[in-house]
Automatic annotation (TrEMBL):
PROSITE patterns: HESB. NCBIfam families: iron-sulfur cluster assembly accessory protein. Pfam families: Fe-S_biosyn. Residues 7-102 form the Core domain. GO terms for molecular function: 2 iron, 2 sulfur cluster binding; 4 iron, 4 sulfur cluster binding; iron ion binding. It comes from Sulfitobacter pontiacus. InterPro entries: ATAP, ATAP_core_dom, FeS_cluster_insertion_CS, HesB-like_dom_sf. SUPFAM superfamilies: HesB-like domain (SSF89360). This is Iron-sulfur cluster assembly accessory protein. GO terms for biological process: iron-sulfur cluster assembly. Gene3D superfamilies: HesB-like domain.
Length: 107
């Protein structure tokens, strides 16, 4: 059963820290063709659009456009902080392989 993506509390907390909602922005998670594995994630602060799925928590919003939604079914959007840096990450059960940097994948 395909469920919409989920957003972790840690990801919503990071959006609150950077003040996304105060600026009227949401975190947009999209899938585009390209990258070394065939598809790549595009993650950016953006304005929500009419056809977006809006995921809300802690006063923050994450949006996914209707074209990207099937690629992100059952995925988890999280925020990771490590010694090498901090970033939003996607745990995508639909991906059959991914590149080493984690920004591109194949299905």
């Amino acid at each position: 059963m395909n469920l919409p993506p989920q957003v972790t509390p840690r990801a919503f907390d990071r959006l609150a820290e950077i003040g996304a909602a105060a600026e009227g922005k949401a975190l947009r998670v999209a899938v585009e063709g390209g990258g070394c594995s065939g598809f790549q994630y595009d993650i950016a602060l953006d304005d929500p659009k009419d056809d977006d799925l809006i995921l809300e928590g802690a006063g923050q919003k994450v949006v996914v456009d209707s074209i990207s939604l099937p690629f992100l079914a059952n995925a988890v959007i999280d925020f990771s902080e490590e010694l090498i840096g901090a970033r939003f990450v996607i745990e995508n059960p639909n991906a059959t392989s991914a590149c080493g940097c984690g920004t591109s994948f194949s299905m």
